[in-house]
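lol so apparently i was supposed to do this last week
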Amino acid sequence: MSRAGLDKNPREVAEMFDGVAKGYDRTNSVMTMGFDRRWREWSRRVLDARPGEKVLDLAAGTAVSTVEYAATGAWCVAADFSLGMLQTGAHRQVPKVAADAMRLPFADDSFDAVTVSFGIRNFHDPEAALREMARVVRPGGRVVVCEVSTPTFRPFRFVYKRYLLWILPFISRFVSSNPEAYKYLAESMRTWPDQREFGEIVARAGWEDVAWMNLTGGLVALHRATKPTGNPATKSTEKPTDKTADKPA
Ligand SMILES: C[S@@+](CC[C@H](N)C(=O)[O-])C[C@H]1O[C@@H](n2cnc3c(N)ncnc32)[C@H](O)[C@@H]1O
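anyway here it is w/ S-adenosylmethionine bound
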């Protein structure tokens, strides 16, 4: 079965997720030892969607994250380019759209917020995708990105980076139908920028007030930012910052 390369060819990425779609939710829970649920809760809190708001959950996969956000009363749509992933989540009662993050089929300024969880690392060009996200969000709207990141405790960081490539594919042999895909997962995690570097990418893509929060010791980070309103009085000159404590609940 197929796996994508680190050039993140969109066709290969979509095929790879089609291939793991059936067991995705279960494998994800096993591989994260159930932490995925907690990370999703934190994403919902930071997204802070209100009833009546329109939220785009990009790279939503089986829409497991979308239903979490929809519980707030906001209108949430799941978008993903893997039909296999969307079909696997067909039982989840949220609207779903087949869409490539690099060219979204939505009008300018049509959402109050956009969010991506564990998806942006797979995009061919994350910075261009962040610009595309800014296009579809209204001025003053938010982006929240939940993604694997760099552990903050240095000795653990060393072990994590060194053995990740070996351990993840090994465990996946027992729980996934496509262990090759988990080799890609480990490689893409190892080469993904750390919290600060990714914050700078978000800012370069045109978002402001960029901040991040470490979850589970930095294994995962939540970045959030705001789309500029164009009003010079509210224009932020801040650099990306880690404004929050490194302590999940
Ligand atoms: C690891 S899954 C995450 C799914 C879900 N957000 C979650 O938290 O469980 C990554 C998803 O990103 C999607 N994806 C990757 N590149 C994409 C792109 N360019 N456009 C749309 N979806 C994309 C894949 O199809 C896959 O469903």
